[in-house]
Structure formats: structure tokens, C-alpha cells
Protein 1
Amino acid sequence: ETGVTQTPRHLVMGMTNKKSLKCEQHLGHNAMYWYKQSAKKPLELMFVYSLEERVENNSVPSRFSPECPNSSHLFLHLHTLQPEDSALYLCASSPQTGGYGYTFGSGTRLTVV
Amino acid sequence: GENVEQHPSTLSVQEGDSAVIKCTYSDSASNYFPWYKQELGKGPQLIIDIRSNVGEKKDQRIAVTLNKTAKHFSLHITETQPEDSAVYFCAASSDYKLSFGAGTTVTVRA
């Protein structure tokens, strides 16, 4: 365990379903991130939270909705996804925003059918 | 925004040989360059990093070099071992976030 825990590890959902991904960190970090990882592509930053405030939304479709109720927890709510949304979704945390000290979770492998 | 390019996309080396992965970045304001290793079923893990005021850093069998003028940095793995087989990502930090390369799949042949 890296200190960042993601659940579930695997998720299969239909295009009309609603599901949520959960991320929890026990490192005392103030920043949390959602990344999308697709094969042969760079990690795509989706959302950045600093002290529970969203500081960036990288033009992510509204079918992805983040929630950060406190500095230890981060959620990604999913609804009416498309097959091209199938990917590994990674959560990360860091002491502050700025690139230093990133710790990643193991990811949630999402398949949209 | 920052654009990071990484080469090669795949690399196969004989056990004991060296492996080199190269990255270029576009934003001259970037000042921190970490490298991550991702094994199957796991998230990326930091293996070494370098800041813009340093030209080279070494940690046992891995080393990173940075050329700020040319805006490129490289990862060197010496005496490769089977457990070095993984996907390696470079990244560059500007503003408040990391931008990643597309990754290099390294296979170490026994």
C-alpha cells in the first residue's frame, strides 16, 4: 500500500449506470488529483483539489463529477459514460500542489459496456 | 501548457545491459522533473527526481540527467535486472501540476 487507497479496483458499468470511484489518503496531504490513463497515452489530468477546493477542471465532460468532502477523501461520480471512457483512473495526492511528492493509488480499471 | 515527449515507447534490453529513456519538455519555466515506474496492476511510483538547479542525480543503478538549455532530460538504468521490467514515465512540473510523457515499456530479457 502506498498510502493512497482506491476502490473499487475494477468496475464494469453500462452506459446508463451511475457509479462512483473512491480515493482515500492517509498521508496528511493537502492536494488530491484524478488522472485518466489510457494505453500508449500520457496520463491526463482531470481534476485538482487543494484543501478541498477545486483548482482545475481540465475540460472534462460533465458526465464526470468530482467531489472532495475533506482533504483525505476524493470521489469521482460517473453517469451516462461512453465506451471511450474505459480506462484506468488514478488518484494521487501530494503535500501541496506543484508536482512534488506525488503518491499514486493503484487505480480503478473501468470498463464501459 | 507543458508538453512532454518521451522516447522510445518500447525498449528491450539484455539483462546486465543499460537502458536509456529520453524526454523533452516545452515550458522553460518547468523546474522539477520526476520519473515514475509503473508495474502491472499498480499505480506509478516515484523512482528518482531532479530539480532544475541540478544537472545530474544518481541513486544506485539509476541516474537522471537534465539539460535545461536543450529542455531535455534522461533516465539511465545500469546493470538491468528482470525486476526493472515495467513502464516508465517522465514528467515535468510547471505552475502547480505535473505533465507526463506517454511512457516507455521496458523489457529486460534474461
Protein 2
Amino acid sequence: AQSVSQHNHHVILSEAASLELGCNYSYGGTVNLFWYVQYPGQHLQLLLKYFSGDPLVKGIKGFEAEFIKSKFSFNLRKPSVQWSDTAEYFCAVNGGKGSARQLTFGSGTQLTVLP
Amino acid sequence: GAVVSQHPSRVICKSGTSVKIECRSLDFQATTMFWYRQFPKQSLMLMATSNEGSKATYEQGVEKDKFLINHASLTLSTLTVTSAHPEDSSFYICSARRPGVQNSPLHFGNGTRLTVT
């Protein structure tokens, strides 16, 4: 079975601070990796995804994530956060093949950016 | 442990039949639940918001008559795929948030893999 772990439930930063949200997964095979964001009062949006190729993935709004296979990690980063980045962030893993493929979400990290 | 339970985890059905997927909140009452669908190698798409005691709110482009949502109790929402066709084959996932708790995380079910033959 696959699982996803997000270590920080709530992160509070000041504007312009750098951000790194941890995501670790457990699955022995090939995986697709995602980061989703949910802004207050809105629904999930895809920030970025990794399927194959360059392990450093760039997404929308200046976010990026690095897939480190040896560490089973897919941490989300942003060099300088803004107040508008206040939201909930979810890491997700899609492992397995064919009909066994399953999408598993982490428990989420609430990011609060102080102006 | 899991706080949102989804059943079944996998279902195979014949074209033309209907399939019901259940989403239960295990230790809290969810007045709102969300249903998503994931297409192969694509991101999750919100299909509808299920509201207890009232009609579901569907996203643009989602057929209400095909994807019937019933939120009959505070702990159960069901998604019924009616007259399923092979193009309905997908991964369906529900989520709910514990109400009244500040910064309560969004809890996801484990999803249902639907294959229509």
C-alpha cells in the first residue's frame, strides 16, 4: 500500500520568507507526484506535477518541487512567499499500474503568510 | 486512522449499468462533501459539492443526470454513475472537512477505480 506523509500541519511565515513543505511517500514502484493547493473558500487546484524526466519541476505562481527518488521525497519550495499564498497545500502520489493505480493524498499543510 | 471511508475501492461493470460509490465520514458529521474525478495522467477535477439535505452543486460540464449525488445523512454521500460507458472509466475520490474546527484538514477517501467494459 502507498502512503503520503506531510510533516508540518501548520506553517506560519512572514512575507518574503522562503518556503519548503515536506512530502514523503512510501511506494516501491513508479509514481506520479502532485502538489495541489486550496485557497480559502475555493477548491483544489493543481500547482505542479511530476511524471518523469527532470526531477525539478516548476509549477504555477513561482512554486517548484524536487523529486528525490532515493529519499522518497517531493518537497515543495518557493523562494519568497506572498500573503496571497496563504492556503492549504496537499501532496499526492499516484502509484501502481493500470486498474491498480491509486491516488493518495497527504493530510495537508496549512500555510499562513503574515503581511 | 482514516476519517473518510470510500467504498468500493475498485469496481468493474458492464456498459449500460449503474454504479454507486459511497463516501462516509467516520467520526464527524460532514454537511459538505466533495467529489473529484481524475483522468489518466491529469490532475484531479472537482465534479460536484454534495450538500446534506439539499441538491448538489455541480461544476460546469458535469452532467447532473449522469452523476447522481445524494447526501441523505450527515455522514454519507453517494455518487451514482448511471448508464455507465467506457469513457466513464476513471478514478473517483471524495473528501470532507471536519466542521467547526479551525484549520481542520481536508480528509480524502481512498478513492474508487471504476472500469466500465
Protein 3
Amino acid sequence: GQQLNQSPQSMFIQEGEDVSMNCTSSSIFNTWLWYKQEPGEGPVLLIALYKAGELTSNGRLTAQFGITRKDSFLNISASIPSDVGIYFCAGPHNNDMRFGAGTRLTVKP
Amino acid sequence: GAGVSQSPRYKVAKRGQDVALRCDPISGHVSLFWYQQALGQGPEFLTYFQNEAQLDKSGLPSDRFFAERPEGSVSTLKIQRTQQEDSAVYLCASSPGGYTEAFFGQGTRLTVV
């Protein structure tokens, strides 16, 4: 089963609003990854975090690697309709990635 | 092609039928991963190849699932005697090295009726 817990499960926001979502784990991770998946597509990597406390931006997206190494946050500023999708956090497990269940984002124009 | 290609995109199988799902990774990518994604869930790891060697198959749910990558390029995921609970999207990803550089295909949506 999944080791990563994401919240909220879904969000409905107005275009232009900021969004914040998070991911927690029962175990320590050395890497946090954030992916976005659109309908009918595979996940696409948005941001990778490699160091506790690290804050990394990719355009309007900002992600942080929690100090405890058991959590991570993703923020989206000034949301636009194309931000719609499911956002997954992922962390390493042996040779592969383990994913959370995702946060489904809906943006109303 | 420029990205990871999976075929077929959609597959409907009758319960008990065998299916084969194909993944064409990005050329030159050493690592290849298979994931299963149930509706409303995140991808769950199935198996991992480094070149032709299957280094981890701990995520395969039963002995009905079998994956191969005989020449270290194209991979096939085979499911024998399909059951309804096998219905899911099967995602393939490839990377030149570790998992953090992995690129996903569009997936194959398998529906078992």
C-alpha cells in the first residue's frame, strides 16, 4: 500500500487563487518529488527536492522539503485553468518511486 | 520517438484472457519501470529493469504477472488469466539512470469484463 499521505484529496478554487497542498510520510525520505498528471497522460515531473529545508521554484510552483524529512509542501500561485490535474508526491523506495494518492485540483475560470 | 511510447492505449479483455502490454522506452535509457494505477489512486510500483536485467519484481501482485525486456530496450508486461481486479492503467517509465529522471508514457488502460 501507499506510504505517503497527501492532503487535501481534492480542491476546488477560483482562477487566480493560490493553492497549497502537502504530503507526509511515516518514514524519512532523502528525496521528494512532485508530479502532475492530466487525464489520459502519464505523470510529469514538476519539482525534485534533495535536501531537508530546500525550497525550490518552477515558475508559479514552489515546493519545500520539510526539516523533519517526513513532509513536503507544494504551492501554486495565481492559479490558471491549465493547472487542473492531479498532483502527486513521490519518494524513493529502493530503486523506484512510491506515490501518494494525489490531490485533485479543479480551477474555475 | 521523442518520448516513452506504450501500446495499445486501450485494451478490453474478457476475464480469463491473456494480455500483453508493450513499452518502447526513450532510446538509450537504461532503466525501465512498470507501474499499475487504479482509478483514483497513485501509481503503484510493479517491477524495475536495468538494461535486460529485472532487478526488482517485488511489486508484481501475483504469478499471473510477468515482465520482460530481453534486449534491454522494449519491454512487455504480460498478464495471464486476467481478472476484474486487474483493471487499471499500466504505466511505463524510463530513465537514463535513477528514478528521479524518469519519464512516463501515456499508459495502457486495461478493462477486464
